[in-house]
Amino acid sequence: MRTVDFSPLFRSAIGFDRLFDLAEAAQRAGEETYPPYNIERLDENRFQISVALAGFSPDEVVLTVEQNVLTLEGHKSEKEGKTFLHRGISARNFKRQFTLADHVEVKGASFENGLLVIDLQREIPEAMKPRRIAINGAAPSNVTQIESKAA
To answer: What start-end ranges are recorded for coiled-coil regions in this protein (predicted)?
Structure first.
Protein backbone atom coordinates (compact mmCIF):
# COMPACT_ATOMS: atom_id res chain seq x y z
CA MET A 1 0.00 0.00 0.00
CA ARG A 2 1.29 3.45 -0.89
CA THR A 3 1.60 6.08 1.83
CA VAL A 4 1.27 9.83 1.44
CA ASP A 5 3.75 12.23 3.02
CA PHE A 6 1.98 15.36 4.31
CA SER A 7 5.14 17.07 5.67
CA PRO A 8 5.56 19.54 2.72
CA LEU A 9 2.09 20.89 3.45
CA PHE A 10 2.89 21.67 7.11
CA ARG A 11 5.07 24.69 6.21
CA SER A 12 2.28 26.49 4.31
CA ALA A 13 -0.80 25.47 6.29
CA ILE A 14 -0.83 27.33 9.58
CA GLY A 15 -3.46 26.17 12.04
CA PHE A 16 -4.38 23.04 10.09
CA ASP A 17 -2.07 20.69 11.99
CA ARG A 18 -5.00 18.77 13.45
CA LEU A 19 -6.47 18.27 9.96
CA PHE A 20 -3.26 16.64 8.71
CA ASP A 21 -3.01 14.52 11.86
CA LEU A 22 -6.53 13.24 11.19
CA ALA A 23 -5.65 12.48 7.56
CA GLU A 24 -2.58 10.50 8.64
CA ALA A 25 -4.61 8.64 11.27
CA ALA A 26 -7.25 7.76 8.67
CA GLN A 27 -4.53 6.44 6.40
CA ARG A 28 -3.14 4.23 9.19
CA ALA A 29 -6.63 3.09 10.21
CA GLY A 30 -6.86 0.87 7.14
CA GLU A 31 -3.95 -1.16 8.43
CA GLU A 32 -5.45 -1.88 11.87
CA THR A 33 -8.01 -4.68 11.98
CA TYR A 34 -7.74 -6.01 15.53
CA PRO A 35 -9.79 -5.99 17.67
CA PRO A 36 -13.02 -5.73 15.66
CA TYR A 37 -15.46 -3.03 16.77
CA ASN A 38 -18.80 -1.34 16.01
CA ILE A 39 -19.69 2.34 16.40
CA GLU A 40 -23.40 2.96 16.87
CA ARG A 41 -25.36 6.22 17.01
CA LEU A 42 -28.07 5.85 19.66
CA ASP A 43 -29.52 9.34 19.09
CA GLU A 44 -28.26 12.75 18.01
CA ASN A 45 -25.94 13.18 21.00
CA ARG A 46 -25.30 9.60 22.22
CA PHE A 47 -22.94 7.04 20.72
CA GLN A 48 -21.74 3.59 21.67
CA ILE A 49 -18.55 1.74 20.74
CA SER A 50 -18.64 -2.06 21.09
CA VAL A 51 -15.30 -3.90 20.95
CA ALA A 52 -15.04 -7.70 20.68
CA LEU A 53 -12.42 -8.82 23.21
CA ALA A 54 -12.80 -12.60 23.35
CA GLY A 55 -10.29 -14.14 25.73
CA PHE A 56 -9.51 -10.88 27.57
CA SER A 57 -10.52 -10.11 31.13
CA PRO A 58 -11.37 -6.58 32.35
CA ASP A 59 -8.06 -6.29 34.23
CA GLU A 60 -6.11 -6.90 30.99
CA VAL A 61 -7.76 -3.90 29.26
CA VAL A 62 -6.96 -0.21 29.84
CA LEU A 63 -9.20 2.60 28.59
CA THR A 64 -7.93 6.22 28.69
CA VAL A 65 -9.05 9.60 27.29
CA GLU A 66 -6.60 12.40 26.62
CA GLN A 67 -7.12 15.48 24.41
CA ASN A 68 -10.06 14.09 22.39
CA VAL A 69 -8.38 10.72 21.83
CA LEU A 70 -9.89 7.59 23.35
CA THR A 71 -7.22 4.89 23.66
CA LEU A 72 -7.98 1.23 24.26
CA GLU A 73 -5.05 -1.03 25.12
CA GLY A 74 -5.02 -4.74 25.81
CA HIS A 75 -2.15 -6.68 27.31
CA LYS A 76 -2.71 -10.43 27.31
CA SER A 77 -0.73 -12.30 29.90
CA GLU A 78 0.49 -15.57 28.44
CA LYS A 79 0.17 -18.55 30.71
CA GLU A 80 3.15 -20.84 30.40
CA GLY A 81 2.75 -24.56 30.13
CA LYS A 82 -0.11 -24.50 27.59
CA THR A 83 0.29 -26.43 24.37
CA PHE A 84 -2.12 -25.49 21.60
CA LEU A 85 -2.99 -27.83 18.75
CA HIS A 86 -4.91 -24.99 17.09
CA ARG A 87 -5.07 -21.37 18.19
CA GLY A 88 -8.00 -19.52 16.63
CA ILE A 89 -8.68 -17.04 19.43
CA SER A 90 -6.22 -14.20 19.15
CA ALA A 91 -4.31 -13.39 22.32
CA ARG A 92 -2.05 -10.62 21.07
CA ASN A 93 -1.53 -7.23 22.63
CA PHE A 94 -3.23 -4.31 20.91
CA LYS A 95 -3.67 -0.55 20.98
CA ARG A 96 -6.67 1.04 19.24
CA GLN A 97 -7.34 4.79 19.21
CA PHE A 98 -10.56 6.64 18.45
CA THR A 99 -10.56 10.39 17.79
CA LEU A 100 -13.49 12.04 19.56
CA ALA A 101 -15.20 15.17 18.31
CA ASP A 102 -15.21 18.29 20.45
CA HIS A 103 -17.46 18.09 23.52
CA VAL A 104 -17.85 14.28 23.31
CA GLU A 105 -17.26 12.68 26.69
CA VAL A 106 -16.98 9.07 27.82
CA LYS A 107 -19.90 8.38 30.17
CA GLY A 108 -18.99 4.84 31.11
CA ALA A 109 -17.79 1.42 30.00
CA SER A 110 -18.94 -2.11 30.74
CA PHE A 111 -17.42 -5.51 30.00
CA GLU A 112 -19.73 -8.48 29.59
CA ASN A 113 -19.47 -11.77 27.68
CA GLY A 114 -16.26 -10.75 25.90
CA LEU A 115 -17.71 -7.46 24.65
CA LEU A 116 -16.50 -4.07 25.88
CA VAL A 117 -19.20 -1.40 25.51
CA ILE A 118 -18.16 2.27 25.77
CA ASP A 119 -20.90 4.91 26.15
CA LEU A 120 -20.22 8.38 24.73
CA GLN A 121 -22.26 11.56 24.91
CA ARG A 122 -21.90 14.95 23.24
CA GLU A 123 -22.52 17.77 25.71
CA ILE A 124 -22.37 21.19 24.11
CA PRO A 125 -21.84 23.96 26.71
CA GLU A 126 -24.64 26.52 27.05
CA ALA A 127 -22.30 29.30 25.92
CA MET A 128 -21.82 27.56 22.56
CA LYS A 129 -25.47 26.76 21.86
CA PRO A 130 -27.32 29.07 19.46
CA ARG A 131 -29.48 31.68 21.17
CA ARG A 132 -31.84 34.40 20.03
CA ILE A 133 -30.67 37.99 20.51
CA ALA A 134 -33.24 40.74 21.05
CA ILE A 135 -32.82 43.73 18.74
CA ASN A 136 -33.18 47.11 20.45
CA GLY A 137 -34.31 50.31 18.76
CA ALA A 138 -37.02 48.91 16.52
CA ALA A 139 -40.53 50.21 17.15
CA PRO A 140 -42.96 47.41 17.94
CA SER A 141 -45.37 46.81 15.06
CA ASN A 142 -48.58 47.12 17.14
CA VAL A 143 -47.79 50.57 18.62
CA THR A 144 -49.07 53.68 16.82
CA GLN A 145 -47.54 57.10 17.38
CA ILE A 146 -49.79 60.10 18.02
CA GLU A 147 -48.75 63.27 16.25
CA SER A 148 -48.16 66.27 18.43
CA LYS A 149 -47.32 69.88 17.68
CA ALA A 150 -44.24 71.49 19.10
CA ALA A 151 -44.93 74.43 21.43
So the answer is: none
